[in-house]
Write a structure and sequence with these properties.
Low-confidence stretches: none
Oligomer: single chain
Radius of gyration: 19 Å
Number of helices: 3
Structural class: mainly beta
Largest sheet: 9 strands, antiparallel
Mean pLDDT: 97
Number of strands: 31
Distance between the termini: 21 Å
Strand order of the largest sheet: 12-13-14-15-31-25-24-19-22
Helix content: under 10%
Shape: globular
Length: 348
């Protein structure tokens, strides 16, 4: 195992470093301090080559000026909060409405835009920390957050999140990696095979806000309980949910949630043969298929990020849960520790 650190650039006068984790098999993960961003992930394909399975950016300018959350840690509350507001104990908190001026998306963008502080904690793990001040983007509490990236010799990338606040608040952290298991420059992901361990998903309105917590996937385009191609039903525009999301952009409710690590998804690249298994301690996973990428954002190696060039599997608490606190736990008392873990395991 080995870790290297180098200067990546400067953002508003602050030095930004990049860290590279490499395991004994040659698998490599590159993480930068801006947004605690998982920037590159080199995985061995069937032909023996190591390919970068993440779409995104390879310059600081790209991450700051053109990013659509590629690879970043998002918080303080990942996903959407209706109307950009919620209440705790009768006190209403008004948040940054950064999604069409009506919704708070990914906490207003604070965590993903910030420069985190990276530190080696072993020869195979890094911890990135960030301190968010009370009232930032409208959220209550001074919050100390951290994410640890660990690359094992079993070709697992383990992400462990922790956070604690000095006021009662809502917390929901995730990583917004965009995956293409054939390689970031290999075209769309419609022929990837995907299995989701979810009998239910969360239906949304035309602004991507949940209509209710759960709807059965059976007899819908959202049934991935048996592996199928991502593109098989993605254009079923007669389905109102496909229409509302412009494809898949929905929370799936993970079967058998118990707070322990559970497999929520298995994806396979049709060209590379790379299989990725996703495990998490969280109750939901947002499956997103890059529906709003249109080629106007330039990514790695100056190549455009086009529609459905990648997919996301964002492990999470359900969207808008601060306004439906009976759905799943999202409110944390003063000094109560938020903790979650997600594992991306790769094999052929």
């Amino acid at each position: 195992m080995a870790i290297t650190k180098s200067l990546y650039g400067e953002l508003n006068g602050v030095k930004v470093y990049t860290f590279t984790l490499t395991n004994k098999n040659g698998m490599k993960a590159e993480i930068i301090e801006k947004g605690a961003t998982l920037e590159k992930l080199f995985v061995k394909a069937e032909n023996g080559d190591f390919i970068d399975v993440l779409s995104g950016h390879d310059t600081l300018e790209g991450h700051t000026e053109r990013s659509d959350y590629q690879g970043v840690v998002v918080g303080q509350y990942a996903n959407r909060i209706k109307g950009g507001k919620f209440s705790i104990d009768g006190v209403e908190y008004n948040l940054t409405k950064n999604d069409n001026g009506i919704t708070c998306l990914h906490g207003g963008g604070e965590y993903s835009s910030a420069v985190w502080t990276g530190e080696e904690i072993s020869d195979k793990a890094l911890t990135f920390t960030y301190f968010s001040k009370d009232g930032n983007d409208g959220f209550p509490g001074n919050v100390k957050a951290s994410v640890t990236y660990e690359l094992t010799d079993n070709d697992e990338l383990i992400l462990t999140y922790n956070a604690v606040s000095d006021k009662k608040t809502v917390i929901n952290l995730t990583n917004h990696a965009y995956f293409n298991l054939n390689g970031f420059d290999s075209g769309d992901i419609l022929d990837h095979e995907l299995e989701l361990f979810a009998d239910y998903f969360t239906p949304i309105d035309e602004t991507s806000i949940p209509l209710k917590m759960a709807e059965a996937v059976e007899n819908t385009p959202f049934d991935f309980r048996k592996s199928k191609k991502i593109g098989k039903d993605i254009n079923c525009v007669d389905n109102i949910q496909i229409k509302n999301g412009n494809g898949y952009d929905h929370n799936f409710i993970i079967n058998n949630f118990n707070g322990e690590l559970n497999t929520c998804a298995i994806a396979k690249g049709d060209k590379s043969g790379i299989t990725m298994e996703v495990k998490t301690t969280l109750p939901g996973v947002q499956f997103y298929t890059g529906n709003f990428l249109d080629g106007s954002i330039i990514g790695k190696m100056n190549k455009p990020l086009t529609k459905r060039c990648a997919f996301c599997l964002e492990t999470q608490v359900f969207p808008d849960s601060p306004n439906h606190q009976d759905w799943c736990k999202c409110v944390y008392e003063k000094d109560e520790v938020y903790s979650s873990q997600t594992v991306f395991a790769f094999y052929l």
